[in-house]
Amino acid sequence: MDEFLQRALLGGFGVALATGPLGAFIVWRRMAYFGDTLAHSGLLGVVLGTVLHTNPQLGVVATCLGVALALVLLQRQRRLATDTLLGILAHATLSLGLVTLAFMETVRVDLVSYLFGDILAINTADLYWIWGGGALALAALIGLWRPLLAITVHEELAQVEGVAVFPVRLAFMLLIAIVIAVAMKVVGILLITSLLIIPAATARRFAHSPESMAALASLLGGAAVGLGLWASLRWDTPAGPSVVVAATALFALSSVVPGRARRSF
User: Fold this and answer.
1) Rg, Å, the chain Cα set
2) Quick one: 3-189 is in which CATH superfamily?
3) Which of 24, 41, 113, 191 is the most buried (most CB within 10 A)?
4) pTM
5) Contacts (Cβ under 8 Å, ≥6 apart) of 118
6) Closest CA to 225 of 57, 24, 5, 42
7) Among 237, 248, 148, CA closest to 193
8) Under a CB-based contact definition with an 8 Å cutoff, are residues 57 and 181 in contact?
């Protein structure tokens, strides 16, 4: 097996391992549009990281966290619905990133690779970032698992029982930002949300507990990476979108396979 393909598989599996459990919470909390908003703001983070001569992934994390904080503050005014605010932030940050990029005449940025991913171009440094960032996100998620699950089931009851709702929600947003920065190289800014929600949505039909759904989502994400890379090499298709198509095919296949009875999670 060629070295570039080994690195692509390792990088893709690392991303799938991180996106599975986090995607499960996004599905449970019905936050797909929120994840999409953060992903769109990732391009602005890439541009800011380039302008400031720092790691683009760190720019993505900082920008996503800033957008999450802005959303929390805007939600308090209660004049606009949350989905409206998400739509405004998503398109505003994406457009601002593109406009800023247009003014950077002396800087060349491979926009296509950031938008749709370039998993076959993953290098050793990217692997360290993917696995290091993914391990950090998973470790933090394990620590937050019980309080985050509590506010997912019933936020008001969790608050009465002493769960610090706002810090937990803020930490969860930060984890989403980290995983978006980690996954950016694999499937790109425009397709990250699909890798977060499709394997988790597929796993939901067959899981018997929240923990099993999170684990199964990671396994399905890894399978989608393997199938997508195989299809990309077999038919010379874009690797990132091929991974998403493979995840979608697994979801479609799961819909015709008998699953478990509907559960509360």
Assistant:
1) 18
2) ABC transporter involved in vitamin B12 uptake, BtuC (1.10.3470.10)
3) 24
4) 0.90
5) 110, 112, 185, 188, 239, 240
6) 5
7) 248
8) yes
